[in-house]
Design goal:
Elements: H1 4-21, E1 35-38, E2 42-48, E3 51-52, E4 69-70, H2 76-90, E5 100-106, H3 111-123, E6 143-144, H4 149-161, E7 166-168, E8 185-187, H5 193-204, E9 208-214, H6 217-230, E10 235-242, H7 247-259, E11 264-268, H8 271-283, E12 290-293, H9 309-312, E13 316-320, H10 328-334, H11 372-391, H12 413-416, E14 444-448, E15 473-477, E16 486-490, E17 495-496, E18 506-507, E19 512-514, E20 521-523, E21 525-527, H13 534-559, H14 564-568, H15 571-587, H16 597-629, H17 644-668, E22 672-676, E23 683-689, H18 693-716, H19 727-750, H20 754-785, H21 792-803
Parallel strand pairs: 2-5, 2-6, 6-7, 7-8, 9-10, 9-11, 11-12, 12-13, 21-23
Antiparallel strand pairs: 1-5, 3-4, 13-14, 15-16, 17-18, 19-20, 22-23
Helix pairs in contact: 1-3, 2-11, 3-4, 5-6, 13-15, 13-20, 15-16, 15-20, 16-17, 16-18, 17-18, 18-19, 19-20
Subcellular location: Cell membrane
Domain G-protein coupled receptors family 3 profile: 535-799
Membrane topology: Multi-pass membrane protein
Length: 804
């Protein structure tokens, strides 16, 4: 096609050369076109392909080319043009008193012959140039043809120079819709056929598609248009412009098809070129592909042959709609081209004239699938209607300069192509069902080839570079590859994607978390130590056991308050210590249940004050023991300086300091309930935030300070006489207390969620039980099980024995 424009220029120069040199306006020689001719008042031209595979010399112009093969199906089309013109001539309502004639030429499926035929039609019959000084028959007012888009592009450029309208019945290339470049081109096949193919592909979800086209204007433009349209939806795996006459180029393109992962291949070729491609595909045994045929070869019956069905079964094609032409079959059967002197489309006579076509079924007489043939019929009627409009023009209301009308007896081609005149009408009411695709264009239909009801695929094949990313994952494009090629990466924990082919994962809100499939955010489980929890039940039971134990011991001491064991161990401080231990057990209940503002403040205040009260009692008891037995001057008692009032005051003072710490803490930065969403991904830890780390540290530090002092004093007093010496029990209890709270710190920090609270409760209970058992269980043992030792004599005897 690259040489088409230079050829047109040469032909134009040739016409001018004839005008200048030959007064007879007669060309030196003719190609001897295969033609069909009938004279008329107004002549229509036609260019059809009846023969193909033209054998020509190497463009040396030393010998005439010879036609080889005759296509009986293609022969139906020029016969249809002749039929339509004769039908119009018989119709008195259309162009009355005017006879249409025709001159139909065979282009032998060759571009050079097509251009020569176009020159012959616009110059005049017998290649006689028509001008003011020459007397040839009138040129044609319009040309019906070319069938191929690539040929139509070249011929339209030539005819456009002379404003001769060309009406094509097969050329669907959108390039021909450019009226600036092709002002005289019209067609009865919609250019939207190109746009239907991307819609088919999009409907089936074929995002990874290959394309093959011919290496000419039609194929190159078709590949470009299709690629641009398909890229809005998917990707092009490959786009090959091939020359079927170049075997190496054809084999390379077919190899690309074989190696490509694309399962769907779109082909923009002529029927002749498609035949070569089909043979090569079958030769290389390429199966498993879904072929989509353009309109130029979609109705190729070879697709459904036994030999090709293995490779091309299920091919989807876009083609012109099927039409019905009443009377055409009878006309075709009655035609005898061998005996018609004006019909030399068949120069090689192969019939005797005695044959009866009515008894034989051939493609020529088959009018059940009239597609391109029907468009030929419509093209003739379109031109006839334009001429009819010119003939009916009212004087003073014409479409030309000065509102003039054309003289129908000498109408010019440029007058026919006026927009008002050349319109397209469908004279037969017919509708076509567009399978799968919603389209308002009734001139396009889809065809699918199958063989004898054989079902190869029960569902549409899949053609994608990468399968769709399911919800819960995102697309990650592969570097250097088309956008349709990607990897599917699962969303991270806490992120979701809820639809197919998501390009990103979305973070769930703070109170939500991704489900297992990562396609939905679900509310996080709120976790806190509740009374319904197994751990909560266990700790609550243990707490109540501790409370009961303290109350029981307190009741025993009250009941036996007048016995020597109770009196000898400072009964008032013992009673206060047991009450404070009861409070220590009860404060652990504040740590169980859903945190609230009041429970968060109460739990730490109750814990701090009750434990300081307990340690203060123990510290004062220890001081009393030391002061009673460490007097330096015999006969002098220091207890008058540290009597019951001073002891109560000391306990109150130590406890007041802790209360003061709590008050400052609560007024500056008190504890508060907090939903911790960061500690655990899938859970919300409902906890009490301590508010001020300094306040909490002071509270624990003060308890620890008192405990250390009590332990040191008790350790000093451990060797005093056994009668009044409870220092060794206090030492043991303080040792337990300190060990519990030292191990509490790392356990508290490392425990997750509700276990943090459980560890704190455990420390409270363990230290409380340690104090209760270490200090009071030995005394209860004597009171209840060894009452003989609970006498003043027994106690004094033990003291005497020890002092000896």
């Amino acid at each position: 096609m690259k040489c088409a424009q230079p050829i047109i220029v040469l032909l134009v120069l040739f016409l001018h050369a004839l005008d200048a040199k030959y007064t007879s306006c007669q060309a030196q020689d003719t190609y001897g076109f295969n033609s069909l001719y009938k004279a008329g008042d107004i002549m229509l031209g036609g260019i059809f392909a009846v023969h193909f595979e033209l054998q020509a010399p190497e463009m040396l112009f030393r010998s005439k080319p010879l036609q080889w093969n005759f296509d009986i199906l293609l022969f139906q089309r020029p016969q249809t043009m002749a039929f339509a013109i004769e039908e119009i001539n018989r119709d008195q309502s259309l162009l009355p008193n005017i006879t249409l004639g025709y001159r139909i030429l065979d282009n032998c499926m060759n571009l050079q012959v097509s251009l020569r035929a176009a020159v012959s039609l616009i110059a005049g019959q017998g290649d006689t140039v028509n001008d003011n000084n020459c007397t040839g028959p009138p040129p044609v007012v319009a040309v019906i043809g070319e069938p191929l888009s690539s040929y139509s592009i070249a011929v339209a450029r030539l005819l456009g120079l002379f404003s001769v309208p060309q009406v094509s019945y097969c050329a669907s290339s959108p390039l021909l819709s450019n009226k600036r470049e092709f002002p005289s081109f019209f067609r009865t096949v919609p250019s939207e056929a190109f746009q239907v193919i991307p819609k088919i592909i999009q409907y089936f979800g074929w995002t990874w598609v290959g394309a093959i086209g011919s290496d000419d204007d039609y194929g190159v433009y078709a590949l470009k248009s299709f690629s641009e349209e398909h890229k809005k939806f998917g990707c092009i795996a490959f786009s090959e412009a091939i020359n079927v006459n170049d075997k190496s180029n054809l084999k390379r393109a077919v190899k690309v098809v074989q190696q490509s992962s694309a399962k769907v291949i779109v082909v923009f070729l002529t029927k002749l070129d498609a035949s070569t491609l089909i043979n090569e595909i079958a030769h290389q045994n390429i199966t498993g592909k879904q072929w989509i045929a353009s309109d130029s070869w979609s109705a190729f019956a070879a697709l459904a042959s036994n030999e090709n069905f293995k490779y091309f079964g299920g091919t989807i094609g876009v083609t012109a709609r099927r039409g019905v032409i009443p009377g055409l079959e009878q006309y075709l059967l009655q035609a005898k081209p061998d005996y018609d002197q004006n019909n030399n489309l068949l120069k090689h006579k192969e019939c005797t004239g005695l044959e009866d076509l009515k008894s034989t079924k051939t493609e020529y007489s088959d009018v059940s699938q009239l597609r391109a043939t029907y468009n030929v019929y419509k093209a003739v009627y379109a031109v006839a209607q334009a001429l009819h409009n010119l003939n009916n023009c009212e004087h003073g209301k014409g479409p030309f300069e000065g509102n003039t009308c054309a003289d129908i007896t000498s109408v010019k081609p440029w007058q026919v192509k006026q927009k008002k005149n050349l319109c397209f009408y469908t004279y037969f009411s017919s509708f076509i069902l567009i399978y799968f695709i919603k389209s308002t264009n009734k001139d396009i239909s889809l065809v699918m080839w199958w063989l004898g009801g054989t079902v190869v695929h029960a569902s549409a094949p899949e053609s994608v570079c990468s399968k769709s990313c399911q919800p819960g994952s995102r697309k990650a494009h592969r570097k250097g590859e088309p956008t349709c090629c990607f990897d599917c990466l699962p969303c991270a924990d806490g992120e979701i994607s809820s639809h197919l082919d998501s390009t990103e994962c979305f973070i769930c809100p703070p109170d939500s978390w991704s489900n297992q499939k990562r396609n939905k955010c679900i509310l996080k489980e709120v976790e806190f130590l509740s009374y319904d929890d197994a751990m909560g039940i266990t700790l609550t039971t243990t707490t109540l056991l501790g409370v009961c134990s303290s109350v029981v011991v307190l009741a025993i001491f009250i009941y036996f308050r007048n016995t020597p064991v109770v009196k000898a161990n400072n009964s008032e401080l013992s009673f206060l210590l047991l009450v404070s231990l009861t409070l220590c057990f009860l404060c652990s209940l504040c740590f169980i249940g859903e945190p609230t503002h009041w429970s968060c403040r109460l739990r730490h205040v109750a814990f701090g004050i009750s434990f300081v009260l307990s340690i203060s009692c123990i510290l004062v008891k220890t001081i009393v023991v030391i002061m009673a037995f460490k007097a330096t001057k015999p006969g002098k008692s220091v207890m008058k300086w540290f009597g019951a009032t001073q002891q109560r005051g000391t306990v109150f003072f130590f406890t007041f300091i802790q209360a003061l710490i709590c008050i400052i803490w609560l007024t500056t930065a008190p504890p508060f309930p907090n939903k911790n969403t960061k500690y655990q991904n899938a859970k919300i830890i409902f906890e009490c935030d301590i508010g001020s780390v300094a306040g909490f540290s002071c509270l624990l530090g003060y308890i620890g300070l008192l405990a250390c002092i009590s332990f040191l004093l008790a350790f000093i007093a451990r060797s005093l006489p056994d009668t009044f010496n409870e220092a060794k029990f206090i030492t043991f209890s303080m040792l337990i207390f300190c060990a519990v709270w030292i191990t509490f710190i790392p356990a508290y920090i490392s425990s997750p969620g509700k276990h943090t609270v459980a560890v704190e409760i455990f420390a409270i209970l363990a230290s409380s039980f340690g104090l209760l058992f270490a200090i009071f269980v030995p005394k209860c043992y004597i009171i209840l099980l060894r009452p003989e030792r609970n006498t003043k004599k027994a106690l004094m005897g033990k003291d005497i024995a020890k002092n000896k």
